[in-house]
């Protein structure tokens, strides 16, 4: 049987198809393909080769709470946080997951009381609206007896809960803190976007449970690697148990690749000034995001029917200068009186976005990904500016 050519060459898929000026532009998902351009330029710094006999065992680091985590990955995670200064790592357990999505589920499992306690009532899971649309979906899809989605944290009554705090927030980019406080409530901090390309690094976060992912830090969403920083050993053990029961472990091949990618990021900042400068991910990312946000604001002003969150800025301890916030998503509002559903209005103009209603918010808002490739982004802003 003939083998398809791409297969025979071992060529990987490229993800979303290429676009032309009249294509449908899909900015619904936060697919971080913007970063491909950067990683095309880093040569072998972020490359790995895995011989056929390697990464075959289930086990990686049997002495660690997270026994399936590659020591090299653990090392590079800690090194990068020390470099960026966005999160404390000393005194924390690092756990690896298949994306931070798996670690989010692991946290729900670890933090909910067993089904035969708590009067049999499932743990309430809440987050301030507008909240990341996956939180309710992932919490409820298996209809667990351990936990259930309980909506907007601001209207929650009770003192036993898991509060998801996403900062900077998906979808609207705001900097957030927990809104609830109680001795029997627990916060999980989703810091997927707490990186210098998106927001000034103003403090070293030191919450009990913090989630991160290469999907947003380096753009390697397809590698499916996330990590959690967890203070409490028992919580870390229970989260590890979840992953053990769910997928036995996490792809070592992916961990090795993620470790190499994180190493390339740190190395570029620790090399002497000069030839490594163009290989500095956060400088590249920030420049790119600043440019895109300015294009978007200009397009919204030209059109006249859209509004965007106001730009804010603060001193960034990593960049050592004042920096603006450049969220990975635009929380766009259509101000036209006759448009009640902004997502369907934009769909009519071949721009796919996610409706505010999916984030527990007004459908006059949509969330637009800011991380697509240049060609799609350019067509998007051009199209948006022409809408009246
Ligand atoms: N948290 C937030 C806030 C996100 O936006 C995303 C990705 N859209 C995730 C978690 C999940 O990331 P991962 O690809 O690591 O599962």
Automatic annotation (TrEMBL):
Residue intervals passing through the bilayer: none
GO molecular function, one term: transaminase activity
Keywords: Aminotransferase, Pyridoxal phosphate, Transferase
Gene Ontology BP term (one): amino acid metabolic process
Cofactor dependence: pyridoxal 5'-phosphate
Domain Alliinase C-terminal, first and last residues per copy: 25-387
Recorded superkingdom: Eukaryota
Family per record: Belongs to the alliinase family.
Name under which the protein is recorded: Tryptophan aminotransferase-related protein 2
Species annotation: Dichanthelium oligosanthes
């Amino acid at each position: 049987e003939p083998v398809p050519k791409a297969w025979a060459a071992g060529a990987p898929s490229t993800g979303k198809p290429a676009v032309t000026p009249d294509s449908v532009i899909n900015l619904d998902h936060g697919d971080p393909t913007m970063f491909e351009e950067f990683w095309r330029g880093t040569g072998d710094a972020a490359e790995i080769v895995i011989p056929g006999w390697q990464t075959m065992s289930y086990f990686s680091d049997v002495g660690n709470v997270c026994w399936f985590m590659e020591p090299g990955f653990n090392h590079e995670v800690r090194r990068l946080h020390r470099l960026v200064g966005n999160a404390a790592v000393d005194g924390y357990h690092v756990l690896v997951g298949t994306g931070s999505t798996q670690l989010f589920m692991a946290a729900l499992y670890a933090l909910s009381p067993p089904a035969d306690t708590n009067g049999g009532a499932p743990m309430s899971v809440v987050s301030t609206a507008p909240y990341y649309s996956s939180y309710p979906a992932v919490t409820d899809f298996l209809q667990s007896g351990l936990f259930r989605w309980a909506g907007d944290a601001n209207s929650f009554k009770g003192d036993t809960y898991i509060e998801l705090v996403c900062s900077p927030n998906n979808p609207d980019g705001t900097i957030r803190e927990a809104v609830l406080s109680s001795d029997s409530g627990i916060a999980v901090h989703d810091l997927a976007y707490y990186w210098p390309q998106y927001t000034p690094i103003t403090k070293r976060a030191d919450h009990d449970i913090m989630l991160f992912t290469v999907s947003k830090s380096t753009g390697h969403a397809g590698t499916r690697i996330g990590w959690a920083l967890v203070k409490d050993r028992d919580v870390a053990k229970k989260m590890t148990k979840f992953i053990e029961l769910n997928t036995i472990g996490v792809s070592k091949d992916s961990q090795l690749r993620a470790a190499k990618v994180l190493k390339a990021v740190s190395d570029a900042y620790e090399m002497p000034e000069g030839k490594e400068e163009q290989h500095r991910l956060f400088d590249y990312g920030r420049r790119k995001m600043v440019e895109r946000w300015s294009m978007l604001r200009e397009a919204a002003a030209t059109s006249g029917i859209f509004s965007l969150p106001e730009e804010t800025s603060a001193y960034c301890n990593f960049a050592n200068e004042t920096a603006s916030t450049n969220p990975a998503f635009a929380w766009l509002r259509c101000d036209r009186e006759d448009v009640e559903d902004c997502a369907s209005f934009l769909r009519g103009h071949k721009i796919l976005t996610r409706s505010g209603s999916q984030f527990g918010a007004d459908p006059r808002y949509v969330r637009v990904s800011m991380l697509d490739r240049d060609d799609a982004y350019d067509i998007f802003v051009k199209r948006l500016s022409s809408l009246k």
